[in-house]
Amino acid sequence: MGILIHLLEKRTFTSNYKSWILLRCRSIVIQIKKASSVCLPTTSAPECFNFSRRVTSIHKSVQFSQTRHPYGEMLANYGNNVFSWTSMISMNAQKGFNDRALSYFLQMRRAAVEPNETTFSVIIRVSCELSCADTGTSLHCLILKKGFFRQLFVASGLITMYSKCGYIEQARQIFDEMPDKDAVSWNAMIAAYSQEGLSLEALDLFSLMLKNGTDWKLMVNNFTLASSFKACAGLGYTKIGKSLHTNSIKLGLNSDIFVGGSTIDMYSKCGNLGMARRVFDQMKRRDLVTWNTMITGYSQNYCGEEAIELFYQMQLKGFLPNETTFACVLKASAAIPDSAAGRYFHAKTLRSGNSLYVYVGTALVDMYSKFFDMEDAEKAFGETKKNIVSFNALITGYSLVGRYEEALRAYAKLRSENMRPDRFTFTGLFSSCSLLAALIEGAQVHAHSIKFGLESNVSVGNSMLNFYAKCGLIDSAVETFESITMPNTISWAGIISGFAQNGEGEKAVEYFCKMHKLSEKIDEFSFSSVLKALANWAATGQGKQLHANVIKTGLETTIFVGSALVDMYSKCGMVEDSWKVFSKMPVKNVVSWNSMIVGYAQNGFDEKTLLLFQEMLDSGLTPTCITFIGVLFACSHAGLVEEGRNYYNLMVNSYGIPPSLEHCTCMVDILGRAGYLNEAETFVIKSPFPLEPGIWKSLLAACAIHKSFDIGIRAANHCLWLEPHDSATYVILSNIYASRQMWCEVTEIRELMKDMAIHKEPGYSWIDIRNKMQVFVAGDTSCYTEEVAEVLQIWLEHAKVGCYDCDHNIYSP
DNA sequence: GTAGGGTTAG
């Protein structure tokens, strides 16, 4: 160690360099000490490089002396000539034999041949390819010592080497301390930033380059543009991207294949698929990466069909898809979502021998999770290499179905393999705990997020906030919100909906106003997300206040906000207000129509629902699956059997919409309530959902109404088999037996319920007093404060027996 | 006979 310090003191290094290189050397020393067979060097300065030579030989197990090399013979001919050594090293490096290239370099040093700047240039790239920072640092020492640092080729090589090894700050330091810079050194540094995802830094440096350079036209070239486009893509900066595009055309650099590819990527990452496709179509020459970039553009923008179409076109043009292409089309299949296409591409991936790449494996895990097929997702995970991203894909998959125990088990596994979790890991873990409100587990995830310094990250924070709100710990949610370093619109929507969920309407509005003050302009998106939050929790008072704010901003009649208002009012039972907003909207899309149709249906306005549906068809719009949920719901409510059958057939046959569980349950309800119990039972069995408890419950309810014994027993058996802990089934079944005076069976069911500890779920009611929810359970008087008693008294005076008044905020679920 | 910088995929 003393020798190293001595070596460093002797040179004219800046102090920062010294301490950093010292640190790196120290790690080399520690590694050497760990490998007990190696002794520490003892004497002169050149030994510095010997450190890393030993380390490298340990790490890479290069057995140079025992291997015969094809170029080995040449050594005898060229002897101690630096050129012959250098070309030997270079030739091996070019063929990808990086270990061997390094061995030749070490041999050359041993033979006391002095390297020149070309040798360093080549060997830096070798250490970069091996991504061996220790070798690189030792080379850096040697370069400083031998005085080659001022050479442009050498210094730019070091910039790239450090950034590829993950030491971006060291790369910048070299860049800053370079006495002379040329286009390549600038480009190397800009590329280093954009490749590391430090897009802002990349663009800053780009503008510095424009200011600093004597003539920027001499400095900016196709390399600069490619990196800058990548930075714009990372930030979603359309404006800068567009101006770069214009300039690339002016400079005549747009025909470069890298510039073209990065332009396409920039436009598609900014969401402008039209421009991306135009650039793609206008390119004179395309390579595999160009095609992959365009396919990716489509699949990232949820245009799965177009992505797959391009995949076939690419092959018609004679391009052979590679692993990247397969990762893209798998993602496209997940985005549609089309599980048949996904499985087909999986098979193609296997056949083409591309299934072993970790990117492809992760795409498979992700795809199967999105199909809710965790069995195949786990299988794909088991067959792929493990890294943090593949683990994240698995964890996120579990979170989609709320399987937090498995998610946590995967987390424990990745920790046991010494992997470092990132923001995606924690986002997945929190949302896996949210669905079933797994409080203790989520709190542990919180602790771990602090351990890894990710608790104030905005995406981690948002999912943590959502988790606490779901668990009813609104104070913790607020704390989380406050600790997010840079809250975004989603963060605000999250905390506002958290308040709404927990019956704190006043707070929800307070935070909405806060958000209003902080950001200069509230956009459509934030309004509609807040309205949605309030709608789901039937917070009418707050919704009205928000509506007033919306009118002030003039956003009331826009599609998103208008539809959200329609939805909010109808969910709060104020369907006339929904209609007022709906009829005022100058432009409506299918979402707006759906909101109104479903709103009418859910509030019992069956005739209006069906009339509005006809109006929608007349206006030329194509109904969606949501539209038919409203229509069928109205039919079931109104007892319109024939109409229900017709609408169902219209949906499936004329519009090609596959029936969902909701549609089928509605149909069972329509048939069952009208007494067509045999038809209803057949419908359930033939439907795509014979294993869903909900659809059988619907049939069971109908059997209870019509006192249908045989079908009722069969339906109840299905319900018990699929959901053995649901108290409602036991109660209905016991009623069915009771209606036939089968008292033994009734007693048996009651006993069974006792044995299985199944209790009848109590009914809850709640009222809204000055924007605070007060929940009641039958028989519980602990919540009767004076204020509550007063409100209840007022309400009782106005209410008729057995009729709940929805317009005055009194609900009974 | 030898040398530095760029685009796509989870």
Q: What's the quick description here?
A:
The protein has 813 residues and is an all-alpha fold. Helix content is 71%, strand content 2%.
How would the global form be characterised?
elongated
Rg, please? 34 Å
Strand count, sense and barrel status of the largest sheet are: 3 strands, antiparallel
Q: What's the tally of helices?
A: 46
- pLDDT below 50 for ≥5 consecutive residues: which ranges? 1-15, 28-71, 800-807, 809-813
- DSSP summary, beta strand count: 3
Strand content: under 5%
- Name the strands of the widest sheet in spatial order: 2-1-3
* Subunit arrangement of the protein: single chain
Helix content: over 70%
Distance between the termini: 75 Å
Mean pLDDT comes to: 83
PPR repeats: 81-115, 182-216, 287-321, 387-421, 488-522, 589-623
Protein name: Pentatricopeptide repeat-containing protein At2g13600-like
Keywords: Repeat
GO molecular function, one term: mRNA binding
Which secondary structure elements does this structure contain, and how are they paired or packed?
Layout: H1 2-10, H2 15-34, H3 47-60, H4 72-78, H5 82-94, H6 98-110, H7 117-129, H8 133-146, H9 152-164, H10 168-177, H11 183-195, H12 199-212, H13 216-219, H14 222-235, H15 238-250, H16 257-269, H17 273-282, H18 288-300, H19 304-316, H20 323-335, H21 339-351, H22 358-370, H23 374-383, H24 388-400, H25 404-416, H26 423-435, H27 439-451, H28 458-470, H29 474-483, H30 489-501, H31 505-518, H32 524-536, H33 540-553, H34 559-571, H35 575-584, H36 590-602, H37 606-618, H38 625-638, H39 641-654, H40 661-673, H41 677-686, H42 693-706, H43 709-722, H44 727-739, H45 743-755, E1 764-769, E2 772-777, H46 786-798, E3 810-811
Antiparallel strand pairs: 1-2, 1-3
Helix pairs in contact: 2-3, 2-8, 3-8, 5-6, 5-7, 6-7, 7-8, 7-9, 8-9, 9-10, 9-11, 10-11, 11-12, 11-14, 12-14, 14-15, 14-16, 15-16, 16-17, 16-18, 17-18, 18-19, 18-20, 19-20, 20-21, 20-22, 21-22, 22-23, 22-24, 23-24, 24-25, 24-26, 25-26, 26-27, 26-28, 27-28, 28-29, 28-30, 29-30, 30-31, ...
The protein binds one DNA strand of 10 nucleotides through helix 5, helix 7, helix 9, helix 11 and helix 14.
